[in-house]
Amino acid sequence: MKIAHSHVILDACCLLNFGASGHLLAILQAMPAQVVVTQVVKERELKTLQRLEAEDNQEALQFEAAINRGLLAVVDFESEAEAESFINYVFELGDEGESACCAIAVHRGWAIGTDDKRAISFMRREKLPLQIISTPELLKHWSESAMIDSETLRDALKAIRDKARYAPPKSHPLRSWWESVVAE
User: Fold this and answer.
1) What is the mean pLDDT of residues 7-23?
2) Average pLDDT, whole number, for the chain?
3) What's the pLDDT tens digit per position in 74-86?
4) Taking the model in full, what pTM does it have?
5) Which string of DSSP letters, residue by residue, matches the chain?
6) CA–CA separation, 101 vs 44, rounded Å?
7) Cβ distance 141 to 1 under 8 Å?
8) Which of 69, 72, 117, 157 is the 20 to 30 Å CA partner of 25?
């Protein structure tokens, strides 16, 4: 996986998956670009993690630790053009998190990490100049660059499947890689 941009802006779906894996900090450390989240995603994501993990709040703690260590920067709109694009994208997508990620990524020339089918379809249909990266691509990169052993990787993917209820769609190019790791 090559990231052709200085920054990757992550949508909530990727953050939830990484948190569910139990390796959020390690995955973020392995990324070959500065990883950012929007203020909108941060506020919603942290609340979701805190609500979902009332008994064991490790995912919320990892999320906060990632921000405190500088592995995950929080950004907000810096121009009227970004805010205007955000409003237009909310109208099209119906979701503030994905819309904020798209607006900031488009105006700043950053890559975007998302698994949301609707957002991906919208970005491709509108021919937005974005590099779209998915959870499987980012996890494969993490496993290869950090030389993660097969048992740890399998457990991480199973945790994502079970806790975050995510598996790559049948049409995803890394679906067979994902299934082979989980089946080991």
Assistant:
1) 92
2) 91
3) 999 999 999 999 9
4) 0.90
5) ----SSEEEEPHHHHHHHHHHT-HHHHHHH-SSEEEEEHHHHHHHHHHHHHHTSS--HHHHHHHHHHHTTSEEEE---SHHHHHHHHHHHHHHS-HHHHHHHHHHHHHT-EEE---HHHHHHHHHTT----EE-HHHHHHHHHHHTT--HHHHHHHHHHIIIII-----TT-TTHHHHHHHHH-
6) 13
7) yes
8) 117
